[in-house]
Design brief:
Blueprint: H1 3-22, H2 37-65, H3 78-81, H4 86-100, H5 105-131, H6 135-142, H7 144-167
Helix pairs in contact: 1-2, 2-4, 2-7, 4-5, 5-6, 5-7
Length: about 170
């Protein structure tokens, strides 16, 4: 199989995986559920790289925007993107970029963690603007319950990706 065909296949596969893990969601009072999306977004960047990773996340967001039920709890539509968790959905773009930017172990992990922090920054600021909550209240509601999990997922994704990359033709 040609390299380009493999990249397209992996992109489609990751879009499907992100959509599936989005459905494994724990509802929270803030209306931003706990999901496994961060793990898969990081894996995507670490495995298929910057360009294909960005294409994957953009395809996932566009699918959801046009109404496909790919967001948590089988939701779809632009209203989800402009809703409470929309900042995190948009924040997946810099997250996958930073996970895909380096192949050196330490810098890949550090860039990935920076991506998680930026993704959370998008989420907090978006939530703040939507709810008119102050920064600290928004941080406590939509970032603190998730950030440690997401950093662990990011580091775990790096190590999982190294095992997968050895087995897959990229």
């Amino acid at each position: 199989m040609k390299k380009r065909t493999r990249k397209i296949t992996y992109t489609a596969l990751f879009v499907a995986i992100i959509a599936v893990v989005s459905q494994i969601a724990i509802p929270m009072p803030s209306l931003v559920p706990i999901t496994l999306q961060t793990l898969i977004i990081c894996l995507c960047g670490y495995i298929i790289g910057l360009r294909a990773g960005v294409c994957t996340v953009l395809a996932y967001i566009l699918l959801g925007a046009v109404g496909a039920p790919v967001f948590s709890s089988f939701q779809g539509g632009f209203s989800v993107i402009i809703g409470h968790g929309g900042g995190f959905i948009i924040g997946f773009i810099p997250l996958v970029i930073l996970c895909g930017v380096s192949e050196k172990p330490l810098s890949a992990i550090l860039f990935g963690i920076l991506g998680v922090v930026i993704c959370h920054g998008f989420g907090v600021i978006w939530y703040m603007g939507l709810t008119s909550n102050p920064f600290i209240a928004s941080l406590v509601l939509v970032s603190l319950p998730y950030i440690i999990k997401d950093i662990i997922f990011c580091v775990l994704a790096y190590f999982i990706s190294q095992k997968i990359r050895k087995k897959l033709p990229l």
